[in-house]
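look at this one:
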Amino acid sequence: MPIYEYRCKKCMSVFGKFKSISSRDEKEICPVCGSSETERVISTFASNIKNCSTSFSSGG
């Protein structure tokens, strides 16, 4: 089940919820202030990709 992020329009807190794709647009209650004025936001994610270059030396 995916995690969706929501922002409260009242207190501006951002929180995540595990929800099915079919219920992702349903309104959520803010866990900080209790407001139902929330909106789904585009999530950002972190990636830790290292440069995987390999050096080869020729033996002579």
Notes: The CA atoms of residues 4 and 56 lie 44 Å apart. The chain has a mean pLDDT of 82.
